Amino acid sequence: MKAGFVNIFGRPNAGKSTLLNALIGEKMAIVSPKVQTTRHRIKAFLNNPGEYQIIFSDTPGIIDPRYKLHERMMHAVKTALEDADLALLIVDANDNFEETSAIFEALKLKVPAIVVLNKIDAAANGKIAEATEFFATKSYCKKLVKISALQKVHLQKLLAEVLAFLPEGVPFYSEDDLSDMPTKFFVAELIREKIYHLFGDEIPYHSAVLINEFKEKENIIKIQADIIVHRETQKAIIIGERGSMIREIGIQARQDIEAFVGQKVFLELFVKVRPKWRDNDQQLKEYGYQ
After folding, report:
1. DSSP state string for 189-238
2. Which of 12, 90, 117, 280 is the most buried (most CB within 10 A)?
3. CA-to-CA distance for 92 and 143, rounded, in angstroms?
């Protein structure tokens, strides 16, 4: 059987997380229109017992670090480079190809790469042909596949190309598992996703989520989580008038968490102020940014 590691790289908003979710058929990575939504390296397993196990890794979008949080995010990207059998280099069909290519070249890949031209359903006139001609000449590009991750167009073609590059081997993980991350991680991510959806540009980038309690009972899972922000003003915005916003976060997050765990959930949220947490090593570690 085929077994190997496939790491997904790209600029923010190239559609990496949407592609991961589409390939796995489950919501493994949170998605929002805002950049820097992905902060961790997320491994997700695509299993076809007896035929293949593909370990996909969604990495944070490649950025220039401004905080220690960003440095941790870029460390996740560098770590992913060390254990790959294949790289998927995701390109937004409407993006700047020169800038994107410069980022890919800076990765200094030691494994084959498939350039994945994403969002072809929304590509401007002539951009698909332009991208094909541009990337076909690059030394890192062994194949180019055109897809729409959102519309799930040509995903089977991409999967076939991925399998062609992977070695024969044995499964690295149980074929019943979807990831090596704990359930609490995905719960925190689902809460964080609602913050990205419900608030403007400042709040999502200044917030983190910490799961303090995760108790599984016979008929319900009790979860208590803290939403971490920088300032008291941000806390007031997260809570909202008479608690309206934190209540909405809770309602939306609980629905997604119940769908993910397949069980009823009692979700309790608090907001805590931790000034400059993005530059605090101890707090970053506490919030899961190793």
Report:
1. HHHHHHHHHHS-SHHHHT-EEEEEEEEE-SS-EEEEEEEEESSHHHHHHH
2. 90
3. 16
What is the residue type of 214? F
Q: How far apart are CA 204 and CA 229, in angstroms?
A: 9
Least confident of 20-24, 63-67, 232-236: 63-67
Paired tokens of 217: 């009972």
- CB atoms inside a 10 Å sphere around CB 174: 11
What sign for the dihedral angle of Cα 105, 160, 12, 127?
Answer: positive
- Is residue 156 located within the same domain as residue 35? yes
13 closest CA partner among 40, 44, 36, 43 = 36
The whole-angstrom separation of Cα 285 and Cα 267 is: 24
Mean pLDDT of the chain: 91
The alpha carbon torsion through 270, 271, 277, 282 (nearest 10 deg) reads: -20
CB atoms within 10 A of CB 126: 8
Q: Is 5 helix (H, G, I), strand (E, B) or coil?
A: strand
Q: Please give the tally of structural domains in the chain.
A: 2
pLDDT at 12: 79
Q: What are the beta bridge partners of residue 88? A: 8, 114
Q: Decide: helix, strand or coil at residue 158.
A: helix
